[in-house]
Amino acid sequence: MALSKKQGVVVGVTAAAIAAIVAVGAVVALNQPAAATAADSTPKPTKSAAKISADSVPWVEGDVVPKAVEALKKSGFTPVEPGKLTVAVGAFVPPLSYVPDGKTLPAGTEPNIGSLIAQGLGLKYNPVVVAWADWPLGIQSGKYDLITSNVTVTEARKELLDFASYRQDLLGFYVKSDSRITKIEKAADISGLKIVVGSGTNQEQVLLKWNDELKTAGKAPADLQYYDDNAAATLALQSGRVDAVFGPNAAYAWAARETGATKLVGIVPGGWPQAAAIAAGTAKGNGLIEPVNIVLNELIANGKYAQVLKGWGLDSEGVTTSEINPPGLPKS
């Protein structure tokens, strides 16, 4: 995606570096704690929750975190607008970030996390909806203080940004809620199954590798199915023409929560075979990331963080601690 021509070139940021920052993490790229691999810390399969609409998910309010406020004062960080935390967010689809019908402010996990961070720092939350390609320059140039928009930590991005992790980037296997399939965790589990997957995606590479393992073992590989849109894939799953769908967990988790028609039976790290975290990002060395990290860990400790994820059906992507600049996906 091309960077916005309206953005000025940031001094000291090369075109190659910016390209590296933008490249990873499409709208629903979408992260297991840093040092994990595909076999580590796999969440348990879950049954679908009752039907729910996006409008019924409550917005979680937070409190000031004195320790974070004190750290912010000592950091020397100056917000874009005095008394406010200007946070870049996307406007895509539930559960991550979207603008509800008739509303002007974004909702979803990412805006709510941004709001809780602002409240913890004792600042007014000032969300700004931005295009995916525009946020790196916006953060670097000081147009935005922070981004909470499903950003994956990568080694390339860490050269220019500081991060505080708050979610795992995961890929999920989903089946019909009444399916006899109870788990998909390794190559043997997909033998003979028809699985919907996106062409040219990391999840396709997972299945192709597993199919190679099955063929070497003399077992039937999975039959990979490709659809142009989610509606067609969903219809194929519900009609029994395919056994499972495999893709970004966040989107499928919300669909399961919203409709009750599917259930999670397996998780794979989003950067398979490596994993990285979803994190809040800010300009490197500006002093903001330490206070943000303090707020995030307080939110984890007091249960507010869990409330946000539970409301949107993303419990499986939760973390037990926020890390500053955890290991990210390697440079390509």
UniProtKB/TrEMBL annotation:
It comes from Microbacterium azadirachtae. SUPFAM superfamilies: Periplasmic binding protein-like II. This is Cystine-binding periplasmic protein. Residues 1-38 form the signal peptide. The keyword Signal applies. CDD domains: PBP2_MidA_like. Residues 104-316 form the Solute-binding protein family 3/N-terminal domain. InterPro entries: Solute-binding_3/MltF_N. PANTHER family: ARGININE-BINDING EXTRACELLULAR PROTEIN ARTP, MEMBRANE-BOUND LYTIC MUREIN TRANSGLYCOSYLASE F. Keywords: Signal.
